[in-house]
């Protein structure tokens, strides 16, 4: 299934990380912003095209080091229809460079509405007898808290088109425990959601032992990450919270299995804003991102035997 492709790329590059392309306009180097805003009359279009240019530079610098990107849909929706164009072209460009794409949309609905989300982000739409893929990401983050009604519409598309999903289980934000740590009988809500991921994933087995139904489990809760790795042996983890949110390499180590597989660690600002942290020339932004991605990889591999 879809995560076989991701895992193969992780093994090939020996790097279990993903670069989150969450491009606030202020993150884009000033020389790119000024150029595109001057070129286009519509500021939303100019901003979206500046973001696309920024993303392409990042992808060029990262594609032989980092196996995947994770564009957060909100940062593209921010620019209206032009932002959606930038998202689609970012996905296409990453695919051209051999990268796996996780669309971070956290979609959550039921029935035909969820079918529409699934078709938009992972599937195809029939237009005049022709099947076309609107966004064509490889995986999509989803919210499973509507239960199976919100997940089942995705499973057929995942099976038919070799795609994957990452279900929110134990998220990295500080207030996640307000709901996710509550008990259902003797188990926390996040544990129950993890069990459901294992059940849903049984329909999408993979050659590495991980199904096409993954889970989002935050680096900011290392004890729960370790606990869930033991309880969810067939579920691949997307782990946010490394770097800017406070999680470190030692914290994420519990998400991996004995073969160094089972998880991919996200960094967004840490990579795409590395030039700001370094204080280097903004025209060196892509090279700075590459340097940070290599540093992150090496940091994690101190604790993960891949």
UniProtKB/TrEMBL annotation:
Q: Which reaction does it catalyse?
A: orotidine 5'-phosphate + H(+) = UMP + CO2
Q: Which residues form the active site?
A: 106
**Lyase: is it a keyword of this entry?**
yes
Care to name a GO molecular-function term for this sequence?
A: orotidine-5'-phosphate decarboxylase activity
Q: Which PROSITE patterns match?
A: OMPDECASE
Output the GO biological process annotations, alphabetical, semicolon-separated. Answer: 'de novo' pyrimidine nucleobase biosynthetic process; 'de novo' UMP biosynthetic process
Pathway where this protein functions: Pyrimidine metabolism; UMP biosynthesis via de novo pathway; UMP from orotate: step 2/2
In terms of superkingdom, the source organism counts as Bacteria
Q: Could you list the residue ranges that cross the membrane?
A: none
Where in the numbering of this chain does the Orotidine 5'-phosphate decarboxylase domain appear? 16-283
EC assignment: the record states 4.1.1.23
What the entry lists under InterPro entries is as follows:
Aldolase_TIM, OMPdecase_AS, OMPdecase_type-2, OMPdeCOase_dom, RibuloseP-bd_barrel
- What keywords were assigned to this record? Decarboxylase, Lyase, Pyrimidine biosynthesis
Query: HAMAP family, per this entry?
Result: OMPdecase_type2 (MF_01215)
Family, per entry: Belongs to the OMP decarboxylase family. Type 2 subfamily.
Q: What is this protein called?
A: Orotidine 5'-phosphate decarboxylase
Species for this entry: Fumia xinanensis
């Amino acid at each position: 299934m879809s995560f076989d492709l991701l895992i193969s790329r992780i093994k090939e590059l020996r790097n279990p990380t993903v670069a989150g392309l969450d491009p606030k306009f202020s993150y884009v180097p000033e020389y790119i912003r000024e150029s595109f805003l001057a070129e286009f009359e519509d500021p939303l279009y100019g901003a979206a095209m500046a973001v696309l240019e920024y993303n392409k530079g990042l992808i060029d610098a990262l594609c032989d080091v980092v196996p995947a990107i994770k564009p957060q849909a909100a940062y593209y929706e921010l620019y209206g229809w032009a932002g959606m164009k930038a998202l689609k072209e970012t996905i296409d460009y990453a695919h051209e460079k051999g990268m796996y794409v996780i669309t971070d949309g956290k979609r959550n609905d039921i029935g035909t509405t969820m079918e529409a989300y699934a078709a938009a982000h992972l599937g195809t739409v029939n237009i005049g007898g022709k099947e076309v893929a609107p966004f064509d990401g490889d995986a999509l983050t989803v919210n499973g808290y509507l239960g199976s009604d919100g997940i089942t519409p995705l499973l057929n598309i995942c099976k038919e088109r070799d795609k994957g999903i990452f279900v929110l289980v134990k998220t990295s934000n500080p207030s996640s425990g307000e709901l996710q740590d509550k008990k259902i009988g003797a188990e926390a809500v996040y544990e129950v959601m993890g069990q459901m991921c294992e059940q849903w994933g049984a329909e999408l087995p993979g050659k590495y032992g991980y199904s096409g139904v993954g889970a989002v489990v935050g680096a900011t809760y290392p004890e729960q990450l370790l606990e869930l790795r033991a309880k969810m042996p067939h579920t691949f983890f997307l782990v946010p919270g490394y770097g800017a949110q406070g999680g470190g390499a030692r914290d994420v180590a519990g998400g991996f299995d004995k073969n160094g597989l089972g998880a991919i660690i996200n960094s967004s600002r840490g990579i795409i804003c590395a030039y700001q942290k370094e204080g280097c020339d903004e025209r060196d932004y892509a090279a700075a991102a590459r340097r940070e991605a290599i540093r992150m990889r090496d940091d994690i591999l101190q604790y993960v035997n891949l």
